[in-house]
Fold this sequence. Notes:
The protein has helices at 14-26, 44-47, 53-62, 81-88, 144-160, 178-191, 204-213, 225-239, 276-288, 292-308, 322-334; strands at residues 3-8, 32-36, 64-67, 93-99, 112-118, 128-130, 136-138, 165-170, 198-203, 220-223, 248-250, 255-258. By secondary structure, the chain is of the alpha/beta class. The strands form 2 sheets. Strands 2-1-3-12-11-4-5-10-8-9 form a 10-stranded mixed β-sheet, with helices on both faces. Bound molecules: nicotinamide-adenine-dinucleotide. Nicotinamide-adenine-dinucleotide is lined by residues 13, 69-72, 82, 242-243, 258, 261-264, 266, 273-274, 277, 315.
Amino acid sequence: MAHRVTLIPGDGIGPELAEATRRVLEATGVPFEWEVQEAGEAMIAEHGTPLPEAVLESIRRNKVALKGPITTPVGGGFRSANVTLRQALGLYANVRPARSMKGLDTRYEDVDLVIVRENTEDLYAGIEHMVGPDAAESIKIITRAASERIARYAFDYAVANGRRKVTAVHKANIMKLSDGLFLESCRTIAADYDGRIEFEDRIVDNMCMQLVQKPELYDVMVLPNLYGDIVSDLCAGLVGGLGVAPGANIGTEAAVFEAVHGSAPKYAGLNKANPTALILSGVLMLRHLGEQTAAEQVETALRTTVAEGHRTTYDLGGESGTSQFADAIIERLAEPAPTATAGPA
Ligand code: NAD
């Protein structure tokens, strides 16, 4: 039976990346039935919101979505469609793997990190108001329930994926109550995994320095929403930039797969942007759907194409456009799998 998936092309570079990703996923032979839903700036005139209710209904129905980036105006204008979507669907865990790829000119060769970011609260929830004309207040809410839930997700992820350690990242030395509660919650959950998964904690500023100097010391990291947003871009930078960083937003009712990067409006419509991050998000989606073989095939075809170099996009040092890069991956997928040759008796 075909997998019914909501496909949100988004805006900016989103539509061309979504099209490239859809073609690559279909080339695996896994049957998909895409329900295309438009969201983003262009929807505001007609629906009064960048995130029409039909989009949320579609994801609730299908339980899985692949999403391109959506622009959020800085300052005034609408609340982020991305934040609204995560909150409306209870997508509480944002998982962002950062793994080195051969062929990319980066500072380290063997980075293998996973960011598990709390996705529903913290300063990132955007609860803020003016206090008179010259002061603004943002409210940081951290709850025990959300902190324990994300910590448990991080530990369960570590167990399920054969990882060795979870590091909780915080600023509990200064924000003793809010980040203190996050850290305390992580410690509580860590006790349930004692002897199976190692646990430690780091203050977020120190963590940033350590990650750029010694990324090999870290494995799975669990963070409140805002630190998770910032540290995951740092980790993307360690493995080749935003063009190669995938992500998954997981909830109890639905899962939405999207790249870490945004809509990069200056490249919109130019067939220039790198589809790797969204294709790798598609790989995470294939795994979520139980299509392990297809997931391995796409990841291998993508990694081989990147390692060869010339058929990639400009940011990876290649000369191809978005769709030609996707064509190169599709050609790899069509090649017969290497057959095992008999070794010496
Ligand atoms: P961005 O990620 O869109 O772009 C930053 C820079 O990174 C780009 O100028 C480009 O040089 C590079 N880049 C990003 N993606 C790339 C790709 N696939 N290929 C090649 N280069 C790429 O970040 P921004 O400029 O801060 O944000 C632009 C808009 O996107 C904003 O409105 C922001 O709110 C929104 N945004 C959306 C999401 C989302 O939908 N989940 C995430 C982040 C930002």
